[in-house]
Each structure stands twice: as C-alpha cells, then as structure tokens.
C-alpha cells in the first residue's frame, strides 16, 4: 500500500509539472547504517500561479562525489520523464562537492544547462 501511494503521489507531482520549468533542491546524508542517501525536492509554479515545493524522494547513492550525485539526478530525471533543460534553479547546502566553482555539482549541471542557476540553501545559512 505504501509503495502504491508513493508511486501515485509521484505521478501526480510529475503530471502537475508537465512541461513547466522547475527547480531542484538536493541534500545528501549518511543514514544510521552508514549508507549515503540523496534527498530530492522540486519546486515549480502551478497553473494558478502558486509556488509548489514537493518532496520527490530519497535516492541511495554509492558515494557523494559530484559525478555520483549528478548520475543519480540524471537517473531520477530519466525515470520520471523530467528534462535537465527544463531546470531553472538548483539549491544545495554549502558542502564543497556541491558548490565548487569549477567541478562542483552546480557547475556540472550549469555546464549542461546554463539557465539552472545555483542558490545556496537558505536554511543552511542560518
């Protein structure tokens, strides 16, 4: 029942986004079993002009290198029919693997889509 609910909810989110632009919020963490996880949220504007923030999922990643995280994001986008070219924003914590100017995750994505501007996550600035 839980898996079906997750699938249906995810499908609603993806259908609501449709061909709209969206932003990506990612944080990575190690759980109690020391497995690396990547938490993914999306932000988009619905047809009524409301800003919608939604949790998309938790992805297992083998490590938190920039290439591993980028591959996990590309895989997630592929599974859900999301296009990197519709991405208009990206937000992460201040970890160096995320924000480095030349080889951080933000630059790997901006090299592919220069419209996907990076914003340091406000919550991580407190």
From TrEMBL:
<dbReference type="Pfam" id="PF14291">
    <property type="entry name" value="DUF4371"/>
</dbReference>
<feature type="domain" description="DUF4371">
    <location>
        <begin position="7"/>
        <end position="104"/>
    </location>
</feature>
<dbReference type="InterPro" id="IPR025398">
    <property type="entry name" value="DUF4371"/>
</dbReference>
<protein>
    <recommendedName>
        <fullName>DUF4371 domain-containing protein</fullName>
    </recommendedName>
</protein>
